[in-house]
Specification:
InterPro entries: ConA-like_dom_sf, DUF1961, Pectin_lyas_fold, Pectin_lyase_fold/virulence, PL-6. The chain is mainly β. It has a domain of about 270 residues: Sandwich (Jelly Rolls), CATH 2.60.120.200. The protein is about 10% helix and about 35% strand. A 16-stranded mixed beta sheet has the order 2-1-18-19-22-25-30-33-36-39-42-45-48-51-54-57. Strands 20-23-26-31-34-37-40-43-46-49-52-55-58-59 form a 14-stranded parallel beta sheet. A 12-stranded parallel beta sheet has the order 21-24-29-32-35-38-41-44-47-50-53-56. The N terminus and C terminus are likely disordered.
C-alpha cells in the first residue's frame, strides 16, 4: 500500500512539468502602444504537442463549420445501407460477422464473439494483460468447433497455437498525405480491444490490396511484422487502461503510451477524429485528446485506414467520413493587430475600441477598479485576446467588475488581489442563502466561447458574493487558482443554463477555501434547482479540490446531463453533491480524506465557527439515472456514498411553482460500478435525516456492480442492513474484518477473496488505475505552486 501511495505522489507531482515550447512563423501587423502606432511582427505559433485544439474542446460546432476552420474537404462518406455497398467499399479480413441496420450503423464482431463473451462471464478464463495463454486456449477451442477446419488451421502459429479469431475492416478509399478520419464508435463488450490502423501500405508503398502481398486473416502478427506497414492506436483497453501508438514496419515499434480515455467510460458513444498533417497526427475521442505525436523518422503518408477488433470485442460504427486537409490545422491563427496598455484607463479605452482579431497586451503592474463591459465579439478564427505580458504580474485590484457579453474572447494571466469592495456582512441572512446588497461580480460571463485561463483569485476582500458568474454558453475556465474565499457565495457559479444546454467547461483549476461554518459556500455550482430538468451538458474535469471546507457541497450539481470526471478531491470537509437533476456521469475521480472529518483549512478564517457535524467527502446522491463508475474512494467517514431521501412523486411544496414542486428528490435508478471503495466506517449511508411525511421516500433502485471493496477494521456496507432498496451484484470484497461481509455470492452478489488480489481479480472488479490519468495534467495558474497532498 505504501508503495502505491509513493507512486501516486510521484505521478501527481509530475503534473507540474512545464508545457513544451511552440514553433513560430513571423507575420507583419500593427501595434498601438499608448498613442504611438508601430509596425511590428506577430509570431504565428504552432500548437504545442499534447495540447488540444481549442476549436475541438467544445465539441458542438456544426461539421461544416468545423471543417471550414480546419481547412478540410470531404472526399468519402461510407454507405452502410446494404451488404452490396459494404462489399464495394470495404475489405473484410478474419471470421467477421457484420450486421447493418436502418440507421446506417454497422455492428461488427468475430463469429466467435458471442460464445467467447459468454465463456468469460461464466469464469472459464480471465483477460489479463500479457498473460493471454488461457484466453487463446478457450478461443481456440471455440474456433475449432465453429470455423471450417481449413480456416482454423491458417490461424495457428508455428507452434500450432491458435492466434486468430480477430477481425479487420479496411476501407478501400486511398488517403491523401494529409487527412482527417472521422467516425462514431460504440463498444458493446466487457473486454477489448479496438485498434485504428492508418497510413497503411505495403512495405514498398504499394497498395495493401495488391495481389502480390500475402493474404491476411486477422492474425495480429500479419499486420505488425508482415509485408505491410502502418501506424495504429489501441483503445477500449479495460484490461490495461493504456492506449498505445505503434509504428508497424518489420515489427510494432511503440511510439507513445497514453491513458485510454475510453476505458473509464466504456459504454459511451465516441466520435473518433484522427487529424494527420504530414508528420504530425492527433486522435480525439469526442472532446478528449487521446494521442498527439510528431514522427520525425520517415513518417508514413497516404495509404488506407482500417478498423480492428479482437475476438472478445463487439462494436457499432457509423457516420464514417474521410477528409483531405488543405492547410495546416496545427498552425494557430495570428492576431490582426496588437494593442499594449499599462493602466486601467488605457485598458478600459482599449476594450471599448477592440475589434475581432485583436490582442490587448497588459504591461506588469496594478490595474485598480477595472469596471467595464466588453460587448464586441471575436470570431471562430479571429478571437479577441486580453493577455498579461508576464502572467501573474498584472494585478486587478480594488473594485474590478468585468462583464463580457461578446463571444470568442480570451482573458489570461491576471491576478485578482487586494480587493476593496464594501463589507456587506450586515446584509447576509438565512445562513448566507440571502444577500440583499451585493457589488457586481468580479467576472461576469454572459456571452459564448469565452475563456478565462491562467488567472488567480486569493482571498480578495470581505465582500459576500460569488466571484465568477458563468452564464451564456460554451465558456471555459481553465488553469486558474482560486483559494481562501472567506465569505459567502460560490467561487464559480452558473444560475440558469439555456434550454439548449450550457456546454461550459471547468478544467485544470486548483481550489481551496476555509470553513465558514455556514451555507452558500460551495466551490462550483452547476445551475440552481429551478433548472434541474435542463440538460446543461457542463463538464468539470482535471481539477484539484484540496481542503475545500466552505460547506458540505464542494460541487453542487443542480442541472441534468453533466459530466464530472478525472478530478482529485483531497481532504475536503465536503464532497460532490448531485443535488438536483438527473443523468449525471461521474467517472475517473479520486476522493480521499486522510485527516479528521473536522480538520481545518490551510488558512482558516477567524471570522467564523467551524462546522460541528462531521461532513461527508465522497458523493451525495439525489435524483435519477446517475452513473458513477471507475472512481476511487478512500478515507475517514462518516461515509463514502450518501443515498439521500426525498419527497414523493406528485408532492407539491407550498409556495413552489408546478415546474419545480419538489425540493428534495430521493436517489433512484442509480448505478455505481467498478469503483474502488476503502471505507473506515460506513461505505453507503441510507439517509434518514428529516424523514417525515413530506420527505418520506428513501433511496431505492440503487445498484452496486463489480466494485472492489477493501474492508477496514470496523467498516460496514450500509448504515441500515438489510435494506432492499440497494442491490449488490458481483462485487469483490477483500481484507474482511467483520461479520457483515460473511455473505455468499449466490444470495448477495459478493465474492470473498484473499487480500493480495491476483491480476485476474483486479480485471473483473474495481476501478481502472487512475494515477496515470492524472499525472499528465497540471492544475492551477502557472506562477503558483500549491502543495499537492500525497495519496
Amino acid at each position: 500500500m505504501m508503495r502505491n501511495k509513493l507512486m501516486i505522489l510521484l505521478c501527481l507531482l509530475s503534473m507540474h512539468a512545464a508545457a513544451q515550447p511552440s514553433s513560430v512563423v513571423q507575420e507583419s501587423s500593427i501595434v498601438q502602444h499608448s498613442s504611438v502606432v508601430q509596425k511590428t511582427s506577430i509570431a504565428r505559433q504552432s500548437l504545442p504537442v499534447d495540447h488540444p485544439m481549442p476549436v475541438l474542446l467544445q465539441g458542438d460546432y456544426r461539421s461544416d463549420e468545423l471543417h471550414q476552420v480546419l481547412g478540410s474537404q470531404r472526399i468519402y462518406q461510407a454507405d452502410f445501407s446494404s451488404k452490396e455497398s459494404l462489399a464495394k467499399e470495404w475489405q473484410v479480413e478474419g471470421p467477421a460477422k457484420l450486421t447493418l441496420n436502418k440507421a446506417q450503423q454497422l455492428t461488427f464482431e468475430s463469429q466467435l464473439t458471442t460464445d467467447f463473451i459468454q465463456a468469460y462471464q461464466q469464469g472459464l478464463f480471465d483477460f489479463v494483460p500479457n498473460q493471454l495463454g488461457q484466453y487463446y486456449q478457450v478461443l481456440g477451442q471455440l474456433a475449432q468447433a465453429t470455423l471450417p477446419n481449413e480456416q482454423y488451421q491458417r490461424m495457428l502459429d508455428a507452434q500450432q497455437r491458435f492466434k486468430g479469431g480477430h477481425v479487420v475492416l479496411w476501407n478501400k478509399q486511398q488517403l491523401p498525405d494529409s487527412y482527417i478520419v472521422e467516425f462514431d464508435l460504440q463498444h458493446q463488450s466487457p473486454m477489448g480491444l479496438f485498434i485504428l490502423f492508418f497510413s497503411a501500405s505495403g512495405l514498398n508503398n504499394e497498395s495493401i490490396f495488391s495481389p502480390a502481398l500475402a493474404k491476411r486473416n486477422g492474425v495480429f502478427k500479419q499486420y505488425t511484422s508482415g509485408d505491410i506497414q502502418s501506424y495504429h492506436v489501441s483503445s477500449y483497453t479495460p484490461h490495461r487502461s493504456t492506449a498505445n501508438l505503434r509504428k508497424n514496419h518489420h515489427g510494432g515499434q511503440l511510439l507513445k503510451s497514453q491513458p485510454d480515455m475510453a476505458a473509464l467510460a466504456p459504454d459511451k458513444a465516441y466520435k473518433y477524429r484522427l487529424i494527420k498533417w504530414r508528420d504530425r497526427f492527433q486522435l480525439y475521442l469526442n472532446d478528449q485528446l487521446q494521442m498527439d505525436y510528431v514522427d520525425k523518422d520517415n513518417a508514413l503518408q497516404g495509404g488506407h485506414v482500417g478498423l480492428r477488433l479482437m475476438a472478445s470485442a463487439r462494436a457499432m460504427v457509423s457516420d464514417f467520413n474521410l477528409y483531405q486537409l488543405q492547410q495546416n490545422p496545427f498552425e494557430l491563427p495570428a492576431s490582426k493587430q496588437q494593442v499594449t496598455v499599462s493602466n486601467s484607463e488605457q485598458l478600459i479605452d482599449a476594450l471599448a475600441k477592440v475589434t475581432a482579431g485583436t490582442t490587448i497586451w497588459l504591461e506588469s503592474g496594478k490595474y485598480p477598479d477595472v469596471a467595464a463591459e466588453l460587448s464586441t465579439s471575436g470570431t471562430l478564427t479571429e478571437r479577441i485576446y486580453i493577455k498579461a505580458k508576464q502572467p501573474g504580474q498584472v494585478l486587478f485590484t480594488g473594485k474590478p467588475a468585468l462583464k463580457i457579453t461578446g463571444s470568442h474572447i480570451t482573458l489570461t494571466g491576471i491576478r485578482f488581489t487586494d480587493g476593496s469592495r464594501f463589507d456587506n456582512s450586515a446584509y447576509v441572512k438565512n445562513k448566507g442563502n440571502k444577500i440583499s446588497q451585493k457589488a457586481p461580480y468580479i467576472l461576469d460571463l454572459q456571452g459564448s466561447y469565452i475563456r478565462i485561463s491562467n488567472c488567480s483569485i486569493d482571498f480578495f476582500d470581505r465582500h459576500h458574493a460569488t466571484w465568477l458568474n458563468i452564464e451564456g454558453s460554451k465558456n471555459r475556465v481553465d488553469h486558474c487558482t482560486f483559494v481562501n474565499k472567506q465569505t459567502h457565495g460560490g467561487v464559480l457559479s452558473n444560475a440558469k443554463p439555456p434550454a439548449s444546454g450550457a456546454f461550459h467547461r471547468f478544467d485544470h483549476n486548483y481550489f481551496s477555501r476555509p470553513d465558514i461554518g455556514s451555507d452558500n459556500a460551495e466551490v462550483i455550482r452547476l445551475a440552481t434547482g429551478w433548472s434541474h430538468n435542463i440538460d446543461a451538458y457542463m463538464t468539470v474535469e482535471y481539477n484539484v479540490f484540496e481542503q475545500c471546507n466552505g460547506e458540505g457541497e464542494v460541487i453542487s450539481d443542480k442541472s441534468s446531463s453533466n459530466t464530472i470526471r478525472l478530478n482529485r478531491f483531497t481532504n475536503n470537509l465536503g464532497g460532490l453533491s448531485l443535488r438536483q437533476g438527473n443523468y449525471s456521469h461521474v467517472y475517473g475521480n479520486w476522493f480521499e480524506r486522510q485527516q479528521s472529518p473536522h480538520i481545518g483549512n490551510i488558512k482558516e478564517s477567524s471570522q467564523h465557527k467551524r462546522s460541528k457535524r462531521a461532513r461527508d467527502f465522497g458523493v451525495m446522491i439525489r435524483g435519477k439515472h446517475h452513473l458513477i463508475e471507475n472512481n476511487h474512494f478512500q478515507g475517514g467517514g462518516p461515509n463514502l456514498v450518501k443515498l439521500v431521501n426525498g419527497q414523493p412523486e406528485g408532492y407539491q411544496k407550498p409556495g413552489r411553482p408546478k415546474s419545480l414542486p419538489r425540493h428534495h428528490i430521493a436517489a433512484e435508478q442509480v448505478v455505481l460500478r467498478r469503483n474502488n471503495f476503502i471505507p473506515t466506517g460506513v461505505l453507503a449511508e441510507i439517509d434518514k435525516r428529516k424523514l417525515n411525511k413530506d420527505r418520506s421516500v428513501l433511496a431505492h433502485d440503487v445498484s452496486f456492480i463489480a466494485n472492489l471493496i477493501y474492508g477496514q477494521p470496523g467498516w460496514q456496507l450500509l448504515s441500515s442492513m438489510p435494506y432492499e432498496g440497494v442491490s449488490w451484484q458481483d462485487n469483490g470484497i477483500v481484507a474482511l474484518q467483520n461479520p457483515v461481509a460473511d455473505l455468499d455470492k449466490g444470495t448477495n452478489g459478493y465474492f470473498k477473496r484473499r487480500a493480495d488480489l491476483p491480476n485476474a481479480y483486479q480485471q473483473r472488479f474495481g476501478s481502472q488505475p487512475l494515477t496515470n490519468y492524472m499525472q499528465l495534467h497540471r492544475a492551477g495558474a502557472s506562477w503558483q505552486d500549491y502543495p499537492v497532498a500525497p495519496h
